[in-house]
Amino acid sequence: MEGEASVNKLHTQIEIKPQGQEPPPPYSSVVDNSEMDIQPEGKLPFFKSRYRQRASDTWLISLLVILHLVAFITTTLFNYFSTGSVFFQPLSENPLLGPSASTLDKVGALRRAFLVQNHLNWRFFVCPWLHAGIIHFAINISCMIFIGIHLERDYGPLRIGVIYLLSAFFGSLVCSLFVRNNPVVTSSGALFGLLGTMLSGLIRNWKVYSSKGAAFAALITVLATNFLLGLLPYIDNFANIGAFISGLLLGFVLLLTPQIRQMSKNKAGLFECGVKHSKSTIKLKQKLALDRPILRSISLILFVILLSGCLVALFLGIDINHYCGWCRFIDCIPYKRWSCNDGPNTCEVYIYTF
């Protein structure tokens, strides 16, 4: 009897012990999610605002916002000291609730007389930081934060910073080919560069992102809003168009694959409801590793050609308005509450050439 009890006890222990163990996870010997640093469940939502991110991942956009804010405060103070009484001009003079045309001239706005007659090329580097008014500043900065933060988190500050600066400069170059004798600012051009980058990122990593419809809807909304804003005086839409093309081409060149981080448990991305699951994390990683050298090469060549062409046209002093009479309506729509006509004549312009 004692022998049977010992056997039954041993048998019971042998049967119970496996039940307390958890089966090994599939692919545990092949895949280590902590090392792969990608979302283990499948595709990546484009707006993944609740992913685990380091605070330093958005330092670039924060710095750019500060620089734009400093430039806007400086412009406002210039307008106050020039007029001696007001920070912003009345809506009848500036429908964007901003400084006067003479103040914009002083702080670095673009005007044909400055470029052709006085060759004040330093304005190409100052103009992308200027805003036409508080309405322009609020909309432009809000959209830049919304788009820029997600791009910086996905692709890193270095690539986004290079695209931002090059797109801003390229937009100013395109503006110089269409600008008339009205002062214009090109700060929206950098935003359009980020929008072009966003579009190239979606196209390039089409199989990586989910909820692409929501991303496209956000892109079109921001694009249309700022383009319509560019139909008002002092904002140049040709700079926006040029910067968008620049951002699109540079996005194909510089953006490889998004820096996908592991999602926190029980938290979902902003548009994660459409996440599609891949069959294997290994297959997803292989897709992310693929590159498109032909697309990158063609985009780089096109960007260099466009940049060189704009520089040559600027050096020759070409004014496309002489060949395109209707182009001015893309930049400013005439209305009884504001004027799209050329500003002061050349004699007045020389006052602001310091």
From TrEMBL:
Q: What is its EC number?
A: 3.4.21.105
Q: How does it sit in the membrane?
A: Multi-pass membrane protein
Transmembrane segments in this chain: where?
58-81, 129-149, 161-179, 185-203, 215-235, 241-257, 294-318
Catalyzes what?
A: Cleaves type-1 transmembrane domains using a catalytic dyad composed of serine and histidine that are contributed by different transmembrane domains
Q: Name its cellular compartments.
A: Membrane
Print the keywords alphabetically: Hydrolase, Membrane, Protease, Serine protease, Transmembrane, Transmembrane helix
Per UniProt, what is one Pfam family of this protein? Rhomboid
Instruction: Give every Peptidase S54 rhomboid domain span.
Output: 122-255
GO biological process annotations for this chain's record? proteolysis
Q: Which GO terms describe its cellular component?
A: membrane
| Molecular functions per Gene Ontology | serine-type endopeptidase activity
Q: Which family does it belong to?
A: Belongs to the peptidase S54 family.
Please give the function described in this protein's UniProt entry.
Serine protease involved in intramembrane proteolysis.
The name this protein carries in UniProt is RHOMBOID-like protein
| Originating species | Gossypium armourianum
Q: What is the lineage of its organism?
A: Eukaryota, Viridiplantae, Streptophyta, Embryophyta, Tracheophyta
